[in-house]
Write a structure and sequence with these properties.
Number of helices: 7
Keywords: Magnesium, Metal-binding, Molybdenum, Molybdenum cofactor biosynthesis, Transferase
Shape: elongated
InterPro entries: MoaB/Mog-like_dom_sf, MoaB/Mog_dom, MoeA-like, MoeA_C_domain_IV, MoeA_C_domain_IV_sf, MoeA_linker/N, MoeA_linker/N_sf
CATH architecture of the largest domain: 3-Layer(aba) Sandwich
Radius of gyration: 30 Å
Bound molecules: ligand LQZAQKY5, molybdate ion
Distance between the termini: 31 Å
Domain MoaB/Mog: 170-307
Strand content: 25-35%
Number of strands: 26
Function: Catalyzes the insertion of molybdate into adenylated molybdopterin with the concomitant release of AMP.
Largest sheet: 6 strands, mixed
Cofactor: Mg(2+)
Length: 392
Amino acid sequence: MISVEDALGRVLALAPAPRGEEVALAGAAGRALLAPAIARLTQPPFDSAAMDGYALRSADLGGPLRIIGEAAAGHPWTGTPVPGTAIRIFTGAPVPAGYDRVVMQEHVRREDDALTVLEAGAGSHVRVRGSDFAAGDELAPGRRLGPADIGLLAAMNVPAVTVARRPVVAVLAGGDELVRPGETPAPGQIVSSNDLAIAAQVEAAGGVPRILPIARDTEASLRAGFAAAAGADLVVTIGGASVGDHDLVARVAEGLGLARSFYKIAMRPGKPLMAGSLAGTPLLGLPGNPVSAMVCGILFMQPLIRVMQGLPTGLAPRRARLAARLPAEGPRQHYLRATLEQGPDLPLLRTFPDQDSARLSLMAEADALLVRPAGDPPRQEGDVIDFLPLDR
Ligand SMILES: Nc1nc2c(c(=O)[nH]1)N[C@H]1C(S)=C(S)[C@@H](COP(=O)(O)OP(=O)(O)OC[C@H]3O[C@@H](n4cnc5c(N)ncnc54)[C@H](O)[C@@H]3O)O[C@H]1N2
Ligand code: MOO
């Protein structure tokens, strides 16, 4: 059995280089930026009023002023500046050359064209040209575009961006016991949850899931499943990974020419994880227990999907304090389902007493996975530990 770190390195090594496509900005939210986006203009493009009021010269603050013009957003004033004068101005209007501050209208007294400044106010209320960004500035690739990025790119006058193609991920669950949600299970049957949960993880990582028909526990059915996965950028099987007589995934994949990278890792849950490449396409074989499948999805599949889009893995452990003591760990790195509460300095992490890898109800309740290294000694209440936050 190899370590979790070693396994992650080998999984990420299976990632093909991301492929780009150009999309209009309106469709780019959530996509991974693959090429730098370059600002085509400077923002603000001119010295811009930050308040409704009057533009004037700081040197003239003391004396009475004469109002000689007006500037509104989209309607610059184009006259000649004269000492001792002010320009009526509105937020977003260009501050005319020759005037260096804007006084808020609440801070003046106006009678016809005569203006008296009652209070200078703090600051000039002028947004200086280029104070946000300059033409040529770039938004670097390797980030998922959020709402603020979309707004920034629009302001940069970038109408379309090069993003990574979303990897198509074939999700193949297998087992004679499985029926679809909404069907009535016969005796001995259960409803298939894994493929839907894993498909949701695929989407959350930026991939496009393609859920395949459930494979039955025969080599022929699994072969048909792999055939249906053709054309996907990544194939993810779920179940049939262990040592039982009906666990056929590895055997069938090998028959189809799987170049195996590893099988079994020193991790709990998720020991029977398998990875390799099938006709050049990366393949992950997740264990069937629902929590094991999801934990493997978080630790290996989602990072792989992100790296296939040129993104970082997204695995960023954080620190918390233990709410209660924990016994020593065994030989496998352990990911315990836990909740988080507010603590005095760091968050307080409380593990569920039951860590059964079949309990989806606890997985759904969990805020975090506590990461305990193999062979970790007993831990006391208040000890600082690492955890991975969970999406809800
Ligand atoms: N003798 C041993 N038995 C087992 C070992 C072992 O080392 N020696 N490992 C255990 C561990 S750990 C795990 S994890 C499971 C993994 O088994 P498989 O990957 O072969 O998964 P299955 O046997 O197909 O199913 C396990 C469990 O999960 C349920 N399941 C499967 N698919 C789905 C699905 N799509 N939706 C919902 N639930 C699913 C299935 O009904 C079983 O209950 O093996 C242990 N055994
Ligand atoms: O590793 Mo299994 O994934 O412990 O339930």
